[in-house]
Amino acid sequence: MFMSESIFVDTAKVFHIPGRFNDQLLFTWLILLWIVSKFIQKDKFKNLSGNKQSTTDFCVAGLIIISILGVISTILDYYPFITNVIREFLTQISLLAGYFIIKNWISSNKPETLVNFLYSLVIINSIAAFLFILHQGLHLSIYEQKEYISDSFEGTEITRSFFFMPQFLFFSIVYLLIFTKKYTLFSIGLLLINLLAIFITYTRSFVTITVVLVLLYFILTGVKSGKLGNAIKNLMIYLILGVFGIFLLSKFLPASTAYFEARFSEMTKTQYTTEGPGDLEYRFANTKSTISNMDKYKRILGMGSITNIQSPEVLVMDRTTSDMVWAGVIFRWGFAGLGLFILIYIYATIKAFKLFVKSDGIISDLALMIFLYIVSQIMESFVSWTFLSGHGLATGLWYFAILATLSGFKRKGNNITLHSSRLIYPI
pTM for the full model? Predict the structure, then answer.
């Protein structure tokens, strides 16, 4: 979404957002590419789950119904002052309709094709991570947009911005852990770049999530393979390498390392500690304030497609949502929508774990990848806007769409190779 801010594509108009498209631009691209794929695809793969409805499908359909009721309610309440209401409605629908488009798209391809496509995303994200490191870590001018947080620490300027931060850092790490069967300099380099990008965000929660993902990966794969001892040994190797990496960072980026260490020290509260934007209590307090400012008669189904033109409270809600996605969920879809999203996450988590345990090969690997990524998104949802991010609202539920197709792949197991996770792209 913010690629037009890069000096590398400053004149590439395809990356600029037309005023009347804004958040709908990615959704427009998604629809166009989906239609084109139907004509250029040579070997169509029939997935048995492609037309089967799942619990997630019904929940997303329920959210669409709530969105429709919301836009009707907003028009009735504010007519004729309904500027941008339809645009906001289309933005909400892009998130939900995007799920069904991606699900249909994936179901017509072989799982090997999906794995290779996801690998291309890892490559792209790693390139973005490298540019992010250069810009925010080494302060080379890569992007024209200025960071919105700047601190002076030990005589060094520390900048933080999430506008051009790579959006698939956790996914890239999980993917590389699972699908790298034989480590090469290239695969190690990709992993290190994404890990370093997480460090450069100077975000405590991101480091915590990364540690949890690595721990879960080694524990789950070790238990399933019956080689927990080897898994623990490999985990210890990663731990030693991590400590060594921090030591190197303290030598090459001493101010950045000390700054991040100081941020972790802030988590130790005393009676003199004041509540700040980095505290989870602060985020919950803002979310509670957002709910209290809602019309009490609309807390069940939400405020719908209301914009800041109809109510200035929307601007406050948007800022709160960027710190905790559930504020935006409750505001737009109400507590009914919150319940549906929670049900989606619970169902998907259980389904991904069961598929990982009961299947083998590429399906098991994909299920583990989705399971770990869902864990990361649950944790991140309390400190970020995750699936409501303006970086890619239309693709916000992509991992649920992938999971919805895996059961069909599994039932079709006799016709695909499930015993091997070897990629076309060796990593």
Answer: 0.88
